[in-house]
Design brief:
This protein is about 35% helix and about 15% strand. The chain has 16 helices and 18 strands. An eight-stranded parallel β-sheet has the order 9-8-3-2-1-14-11-10. It has a four-stranded antiparallel β-sheet with strand order 15-16-17-18, with helices on one face. The chain has a two-stranded antiparallel sheet with strand order 4-7. β5 and β6 form a beta hairpin. α8 packs across α10 and α12 packs parallel to α16. The longest helix is centred in the middle third of the chain and has 15 residues.
Length: about 475
């Protein structure tokens, strides 16, 4: 069965409680009416990047639990899991064998030679200040440059290799057999490489790779979610081919509307945005900026960021820069609640916009609890993204859910989940520039949002209906 058109949660395995059993407990105790799907961020043994440098997909990191714990959560909620299609850990058996045996390794051609000419290197798309390669030494003393788009622990895979295809095929089949509703293909746009090009979302290679992956997951009724953080046109290309995609433009557009008091750019996007999409305001990464290029002018983006730094209380530009190990120069590190100045009305208005936007809403765990920037964790780790990665104990969660802003959010989520209008048609109604009016119609059922983005005044009207 397909995923439900109801609100999802995205969380780490150890962020709402310390492990998967505690996460399952929290979901059932506090959020059983609000959350119908859960995307658990990488829970595999990993050497870096909080799970995104997997050593293997055969097991769950013992600190979090077991595959049985994952499957039990999947019995109660629509489950999404991750597959890092672009890379594997430097500590994985595959790369370690290659490091030890060099060209004699059976996995040798799984990895890409990073000795790229300067002319070609200049064309490669990268979102970090350093080149997409690293140097390492073989035991025999020889030194080699290897392709590594992200962190030094994340070694890129070569999809022109038959061995890579064999290994990845087996991984995808194993993951699909654990019965998730969806597998996210993380960083897939970087997996298409050809010298002399940007090596990013190359066509037709990207469509061949997606179709190849789909062939192994479809038979288990598992959907694919390609993850591409870039210009909004990439999401529209995915949608045109019938794939799920993300609305990574919405976060900045909503911030712009609520900070500037005009909904004009937001309305323009809502008219054309994909319908088969996962909507977000916050994620485990930062708030994307590059995604809205062309939807907002450079001046509008600059003013939005300036206002965010002003209203975001303790957020600083440095937290999104190299001093705090920020790998992505096009993302801003801040919780969404802090980005709106911890203003409860503005925050609920933002979530109302998200829930009335076409697509399946996904709420990050910090956002679900209207969390503020965790400056203590950020300064202790000197990792910018940790500003939005607070880990909640069971005791903390029991207190946080009592806050008025969280109670309002949960009520809004339950409304979004239960009203049948949201399974109907989306209509953006004519209104003044500082007003946003969205209506959903499904037969006799209607739900209408009337929101003043300048004053945060909001009215939701709906037809009465019976619920089980």
């Amino acid at each position: 069965m397909a995923i439900q058109n109801k609100v999802q949660l995205i969380t780490y395995a150890d962020s709402l409680g310390v492990n998967l059993p505690e996460l399952h407990y929290v979901l059932r105790k506090h959020f059983s009416k609000a959350i119908h799907g859960v995307h658990i961020l990488p829970f595999y043994p990993s050497s870096s990047d909080k799970g995104f440098a997997p050593l293997t997909y055969d097991e769950v990191d013992p600190r979090f639990g077991t595959w049985e714990d994952i499957e039990k959560i999947g019995q109660d909620f629509d489950l999404t899991i991750d597959f890092m299609i672009n890379h594997i850990s430097r500590q994985s058996m595959y790369f370690q064998d290659y490091s030890e045996n060099g060209a004699e390794s059976e996995y040798a051609d799984m990895f890409l030679d990073g000795a790229v000419e300067e002319e070609d290197l200049a064309k490669i798309y990268t979102r970090k200040p350093s080149p997409p390669y690293q140097e390492f030494d073989h035991p025999d003393g020889s030194r080699e440059r290897i392709w590594s788009t992200f962190d030094t622990e994340q070694i890129d895979l070569n999809y022109s290799s038959a061995k890579t295809r064999e290994v990845v095929r087996n991984m995808l089949i194993k993951l699909a057999r654990h019965n998730p509703k969806m597998i996210r293909l993380d960083a897939i746009a970087y997996a298409t490489k050809q010298l002399g090009t940007s090596c990013f979302f190359l066509e037709p290679q990207i469509w061949e790779l997606l179709a190849w992956c789909k062939d192994y997951t479809n038979v288990f009724n598992v959907e694919l979610l390609p993850e591409v953080h870039e210009h909004h046109s990439y999401q529209q290309k995915l949608a045109d081919k019938g794939y799920w995609c993300y609305d990574f433009s919405l976060p900045m557009l909503v911030l712009h509307a609520l900070h500037s008091g005009t909904a004009k750019p937001l309305k323009a996007w809502l008219k054309i945005c994909p319908r088969k999409q996962i909507t977000t305001l916050d994620t485990h990464d930062g708030i994307g900026v590059v995604d809205v290029d062309g939807l907002l002018t450079k001046d509008e983006i600059a003013k939005t960021l300036k206002t965010l730094y002003k209203k975001g209380s303790n957020v600083k530009k440095a937290y999104s820069g190299p001093d705090y190990q920020n790998l992505d120069v096009y993302q801003l590190n801040c919780t969404y609640y802090s980005a709106l100045g911890c203003n409860d009305d503005a925050y609920i208005a933002a979530r109302a916009i998200q829930f009335f936007t076409p697509g399946v809403p996904q709420v990050y765990y910090v956002g679900l609890l209207a969390g503020e920037n965790d400056i203590e964790l950020l300064e202790r780790t000197k990792l910018g993204r940790n500003i939005n990665r607070h880990s909640y104990t069971l005791e903390e969660i029991s207190e946080e859910v009592k806050r008025p802003v969280v109670e309002r959010l949960l009520n809004l989520i339950e409304f979004r989940n239960s009203h049948p209008a949201f399974d109907g048609e989306f209509h953006l109604l004519e209104s003044e520039e500082d007003v946003l009016v969205i209506e959903w119609v499904n037969g006799e059922h209607r739900a209408t949002l009337d929101l003043n983005v300048k004053e945060y005044n909001m009215e939701i009207e709906w037809t009465q209906h019976r619920t089980n």
